[in-house]
Design a protein that fits this description.
Blueprint (H helix, E strand, L loop, with lengths): L6 H8 L20 E8 L4 E9 L5 E6 L4 E6 L4 E4 L5 E6 L2 E4 L2 E2 L2 E2 L1 E6 L23 E9 L11 E10 L2 E5 L5 E6 L4 E6 L15 E2 L3 E11 L2 E10 L8 E10 L16 H10 L23 H10 L1 H5 L11 H9 L1
Antiparallel strand pairs: 1-2, 1-10, 2-3, 3-4, 4-5, 5-6, 6-7, 7-10, 8-9, 11-12, 11-19, 12-13, 13-14, 14-15, 14-16, 15-17, 17-18, 18-19
Bound molecules: calcium ion (2 copies).
């Protein structure tokens, strides 16, 4: 089943729900305009598109454009007042996640109504800064809860379960579904994978991320965040490769857990917790998610940096390994931990 193609069916499924995620006002809060938005535009003609806000050189300066790169440069104040360059028009944010601009395009005034893509933040990856080597430990089989998200309203569709296969190569992570469809992205840091595949490729700073890929005929943006070595959340934003005005957008959320989770403290992924893992944590001390060698599996408190606290957590949990064989210490220690330790 090619589930990413059949957008009309998804739309009918979610039509009855009413969860709005982006309608809360944030009086007094500074605006951070960066990120990916769903734009419903009208004027000379109408349509919908993914629309992005990316910082450019200069104070409060941004590029506002569709994912191919066509659009405007503008100044956006911290209060959310938008002034498009060249006297083309202006607009404003009504809250951190919603804005309207009214550009005059060749004598016709359009209205762009933009809402931030549901569940995304200003940090949604739109430009690849520095690809990192993939963490090969993240490969394997993962159970996923797949849900559609209405890109305009944020309505979340019913969950369905599927088995995903994750593979790594070079700087990339590939997520393949049971039908063989895949999303391939690039490690931005030790816990985040960024995806961007636009056809035809735009030029310059908005170009598709090198090595991002997809094997079905949609444009794609996406983000995977590994919460720990056993769990990730991913968002994929798709857009049909159709002329402006007839493009259709879709959005999916993956909430996934490893089929065979690493036991707590298993840093090398051999499903055994022993002093080898403790040594690996020690070797990682001081590394954070921006370091190429950062291993998510060693970050036992999931704070993005390997510290003595991670070692302490390892020692607390795996007390048998470091303090001997006190009988009390065995309480609560899993069998697959005790067995190799006793064997030693
Ligand atoms: Ca291990
Ligand atoms: Ca940590």
């Amino acid at each position: 089943m090619n589930q990413y193609y059949f957008f009309p069916a998804f739309r009918s499924v979610v039509a009855g729900c009413c969860v709005f995620l982006c309608s809360i006002a944030f009086a007094g809060e500074n605006i951070d305009p960066r990120g990916i938005f769903f734009n419903r535009f009208s004027g000379g003609f109408s349509g919908t598109e993914w629309f992005q806000t990316i910082p450019v050189a200069g104070e409060n300066r941004y590029s506002l454009n569709d994912i191919f790169g066509g659009g405007f440069t503008a100044t956006i104040t911290l209060e959310g007042v938008i002034t498009l360059d060249g006297g083309v028009g202006n607009g404003s944010f009504s809250d951190p996640d919603n804005y309207v601009i009214t550009p005059d395009l060749g004598g016709t005034v359009f209205t762009f109504v933009n809402n931030r893509a549901p569940l995304t933040s200003p940090n949604f990856p739109l430009q690849l800064s520095s690809p990192r080597p993939a963490n090969t430990l993240l490969a394997g089989n993962w159970n996923n809860v797949l849900q559609t998200i209405n890109p305009e309203t944020g309505v979340i569709g019913p969950p369905s379960n599927e088995l995903l296969t994750l593979t790594t190569a070079g700087n990339t992570l590939r997520i393949t579904d049971p039908g063989g469809l895949f999303f391939q992205g690039v490690f931005e840091n030790g816990v985040q994978v960024a995806y961007r595949r636009i056809v035809p490729d735009p030029t310059g700073v908005f170009a598709s991320f090198p090595d991002s890929d997809i094997n079905f005929a949609q444009d794609m943006l996406g983000e995977t965040m590994f919460l720990n070595v056993n769990e990730f959340v991913a968002f994929f934003l798709l857009q049909s490769r159709a002329p402006l005005g007839s493009q259709v957008q879709q959005m999916f959320r993956f909430t996934a857990a490893r089929v065979n989770p690493f036991p707590f403290g298993d840093v090398n992924g051999d499903q055994v917790v022993n002093l080898d893992d403790r040594l690996l944590i020690e070797m990682q001390l001081g590394l954070d998610i921006e370091d190429d060698n950062f291993n998510l599996a060693a970050d036992l408190d999931s704070d993005g940096v390997i510290t003595t606290n991670d070692l302490a957590l390892f020692d607390d949990e795996e007390v048998i390994l470091v303090t001997g064989f006190e009988e009390e210490a065995l309480l609560g220690v899993s069998a697959n931990l005790v067995a190799p330790a006793m064997a030693g």
